Amino acid sequence: MAHHESAKVRKAIEAANAEFMSLFSQGDAAGMAAAYTEGGQVLPPNGDAVTGKQAIQAFWQGIMDAGIKGVQLATVEAEGQGPTAYEVGRYTLSDASGEVVDTGKYVVIWKQEDGHWKLHRDIFNSSRPAPGQ
Amino acid sequence: MAHHESAKVRKAIEAANAEFMSLFSQGDAAGMAAAYTEGGQVLPPNGDAVTGKQAIQAFWQGIMDAGIKGVQLATVEAEGQGPTAYEVGRYTLSDASGEVVDTGKYVVIWKQEDGHWKLHRDIFNSSRPAPGQ
């Protein structure tokens, strides 16, 4: 039962991630922000928590403006319990030339909202050595 | 019901965090590793995923050997669904003189194991600017 539920949840999350990647490649920060819950939160490295769709849109716009033009998300595991799920994954960021500029990992807490799975808490960090180390 | 459950879960998580902080201050990396599930995982910045108690013990020992002598964990939110819970929190790391050397945020996926809440997935990042930025 739980395994069946998680397989279904994983499929839904992977579909949501495919849409997220597509929006990113189109430079659609507003569309990306709409993938988060009301009160959704990005917890980015080297900055404070970013809360709410307007702030999240500005956050992703800033990432794009800094030259990141593509994101690849690969789900490692996804597990759902009722209206909540967690996902562990790996990300790759690339620039306009397609060169990989960062790789790392993330955990997303997903919530069902209006019948869709939405990102509720989104935290990530780089797997590369810190600058200067 | 869900709120009641989450209040109970939050209390249990805060108690587990108090124990974690105490173990850290005693330099007990093995005790810290025992707070994770079998197959538990730390997803640290600037490195690969650290999986299993032995590797987690070595990871925390390395942090202590690098001069970090204290950790403060403050739960911002905790929500449980059955045997799984997620927590969002803030951390502070300090050195032997008590000086704060890093502050950041974390998400922990907790799982019930042997009747105890244990850390299952543990990801965090600094809120401070990246070195050289």
General description of the model:
2 copies of one chain form a homodimer. Chain A has 3 helices and 6 strands, in the order ααββαββββ. In chain A, 32% of the residues lie in helices and 46% in strands. In chain A, strands 2-1-6-5-4-3 form a 6-stranded mixed sheet. Chain A has helices at residues 2-25, 29-33, 53-65, and strands spanning 36-43, 50-51, 68-81, 84-95, 100-113, 116-126. Chain A is of the alpha+beta class and 133 residues long. The radius of gyration of chain A is 15 Å and the shape is globular. At the A-B interface, strand 4, strand 5 and strand 6 of A face strand 4, strand 5 and strand 6 of B.
* SS field, number of helical segments of chain A: 3
- Please tell me how large the radius of gyration of chain A is: 15 Å
3D shape of chain A: globular
| Main sheet overview of chain A | 6 strands, mixed
Task: Name the largest protein-protein interface in this structure.
Answer: A-B, 31 and 31 residues
Strand order of the largest sheet of chain A: 2-1-6-5-4-3
Task: Give a nutshell description of this structure.
Chain A is α+β, with helices and mostly antiparallel strands.
Write the layout of secondary structure elements.
2 copies of one chain form a homodimer.
Chain A: H1 2-25, H2 29-33, E1 36-43, E2 50-51, H3 53-65, E3 68-81, E4 84-95, E5 100-113, E6 116-126
Parallel strand pairs in A: 1-6
Antiparallel strand pairs in A: 1-2, 3-4, 4-5, 5-6
Features:
six-stranded mixed β-sheet; 46% strand; alpha+beta; homodimer; 3 helices; 133 residues
